Amino acid sequence: MSAAEEVVTEAPAVEAVPKRAMTLGYGTSLVVLAALVIIPLLVKNFIIFQMTMLLIYALAVLALNILTGGSGQFSLGQSAFYAVGAYTSAILMEHAGMNYALTLPIAGIICFGFGFLFGQPALRLSGVYLALATFALATAMPQLLKLGYFEHWTGGVQGLVVTKPDAPFGLPMSQDMWLYYFTLVVSIGIYIASVNLLRSRSGRAFMAIRDNEIAASAMGVDVALYKTLAFGVSAGITGVAGGLGAIAVQFVAPDGYTIQLAISLFLGMVVGGVGWLPGSIVGSAFIIFVPNIAEGISKGLSGAVFGVLLFLVIFLVPHGARQVAIVAQQLIAKLKKN
Amino acid sequence: MELFANQVLAGIATGAIYACMALAVVMIYQAIDHLNFAQGEMAMFSTFISWQLMQWGVPYWGAFVLTVAFSFAAGIAIERLLFKPLAKAPVLTNVAGFIALYAIINSVAGLIWDFTIKQYPTPFGSSPFLGSQLISTHQAGMIGITLLMLVLLFFFFRFTRVGLAMRAAASLPESARLVGINTSWMIALGWGMAAAIGSIAGMMIAPVVFLEPNMMLGVLIYGFAAAVLGGLSSPFGAVVGGFLVGVFENLVGTYIPGVGNELKLPIALALIVTVLVVKPAGLFGRAIVKRV
């Protein structure tokens, strides 16, 4: 048997999700938005901080969702892009004295470039190879950040402390609450941009590549360009999330961005439903609150709980929160009829 | 010159471990076309089992044999329970499954044996090998065990019916089924053997890197690098890749200033990316040609 005779009829890496199924309807969106705006007014600062982290991780999961659900590529290395974004923001704020809000677009652009460049070799790879290369990137990142050469900038193993911004214009708000609303505005902006991106020409190109690469290229889609572009966009959004994360946590250190973070983000995407953008926030809630619950049961068990839940999701609800939402919707429709 | 020879030999010794890991990775890749990201954690868990057996007073080689047997059974059990139902699932689901397995094993090992670093004994001692200053008896033992295992595997795949059936199931599953091979069980067998090989790698490297739940992460990445360098479709290539990567790592660490242990993982990353860009099929792998 010669290699050329082998016929490869691979199943697509990711199940196809129609474009319309990727977002929520207007009514539901408004309800979610109203909840996100009102709840912080009623709760304690610590919970506001947790909600800020919820939005930040939701952004990171959304970024991965664009890459995987949109263009069908994998990444187990999102923690690396998150780390680059966090460090960019932290360094610009602490060494260059830049305004925190201005560091975010820069973090986004730098991560876009980084992701685009990393996507260059990645576009020759499919499925498992890409997972492998990004897995290696995520494991190598903490060591790169600890390097002696950059210690002057990165603070080496100790990391950097970031100052939390005050609310501007003398608004009567706590720092946490200001940061929450700031994050909310950024997240909504990015969410709308992502939805529009996936509805645009480029988004259709991503999905064509996801569903059948050869057919897409036959239709004139520049596969290499759009694959790297998806990588870059995903990395850029993750970078913004990382920058926001650094500001919210007020601290960056290499050991905060290990493979565990990449696993969490990946898990968040699977739980939220691959290719369903609103699921990002469900996935993010999952990766923030489940470890707390698991730690409450037994210290150090959070990994096992994560893993078991991930298996449960794979076996029982392979489409994650999207599937749950659809079932709920059908139930409601049934009840209305009766 | 002595330094050079010393480093090459030390590289071959660690390379032997990478070769084992790469071999385990390739065995599963051959069987199901997926990379097992939990391979390192499975090996780590096996090593902890052997450590625990020794703590209970089982002699080294007794613990060794028991552990290999346990790992073999556990590998088959994992395949039957968790991954057989996923055989037809998209790649993403499988990757998620491996990641879940990784998280579970890592966390459970930490829970049972905690994260403190433990000493692990070597059966070979650590005196100079045959009076030479170049290599210790443990390193020589590592190389010896790896080579012995390779020879055994070669004979298994070349001269036994089961070995032939496994090769057939891996290369053309449908034709293999037509001639009456139970391909599903061949995959399970592949998992069992990969787990057993991994456990040997774990027990051999544990005296060097010390025993703790995260000990295999670096080894796994190097195992991946070795498998990619040798070609994911070639067990022989994986072994050659393992030795090459081991020697490369040691030489780079010795001769390029500023590259030490703290750059261990980035070197592996660079190696993986370089190979995937320059020669994605690896040194000995078959390039897959797609027909539309």
The major sheet of chain A is characterized as: 2 strands, antiparallel
Overall mean confidence score, pLDDT of chain A: 80
pLDDT < 50 stretches of chain B: none
Give the % helix of chain B.
Answer: over 70%
The whole-angstrom Rg of chain B is 19 Å
First CA to last CA of chain A: what distance? 62 Å
Largest protein interface, residues of each chain: A-B, 56 and 59 residues
Determine the mean pLDDT of chain B. 84
How many E strands of chain B? 0
Taking pLDDT < 50 over at least 5 consecutive residues as the criterion, the unreliable ranges of chain A are 1-10
Percent of residues of chain A in helical segments? over 70%
- List SSEs of chain B in N-to-C order: HHHHHHHHHHH
Overall 3D geometry of chain A? globular
β-strand percent of chain A reads under 5%
In terms of quaternary structure, what is this?
A: heterodimer
What structural category do the secondary elements of chain A indicate? mainly alpha
